[in-house]
């Protein structure tokens, strides 16, 4: 009969918590590379559908996918050549377009962090480029984030917000909240959702590390 030592118990608990705390939730086509468009550094390629996402807006041209991360515009996004990302408001269409996707596999009561990259890819009139994120579950918003305001020369930035799951699934939405319509194109890329470790979990992980260190010294 095996006897589980206190060290082993702590180790098992740490492994269990670690797997939950660092679990990433699947976001389909999170980097918008599912549709291969080749290398086009000059213009956005309009697509009828974006794999994994649904678009709403005033015109079908309000959301496009751009192939290549360094378009010949007033500011450099800093994206690598061949990278693809969604472009809101391309061609001076109306702002307010949205992309949304149903997210599943959530643990009720668990806090999650949403991370997304916003790219100021064209800004001819020095307007503010901005994309906001929101997570809706059971008909109510349970978390939202206002993207960093970007102006000429800012390039790109990563924005985050958190929510606590009230159901096993919900809807993740991104909205083009840029100022003005003409002369401003805003990109969205690299979306992720990860579980946030609870304070008690973080403490136990630290205790587990200490236990392993003490065991090695024996």
UniProtKB/TrEMBL annotation:
InterPro entries: Ice-binding_C, TM_Gly-Cys-Arg_CS. Residues 195-217 form the Ice-binding protein C-terminal domain. It comes from Oceaniferula flava. NCBIfam families: GC_trans_RRR, PEP_CTERM. This is PEP-CTERM sorting domain-containing protein. It comes from the Bacteria. Keywords: Signal. Residues 1-23 form the signal peptide.
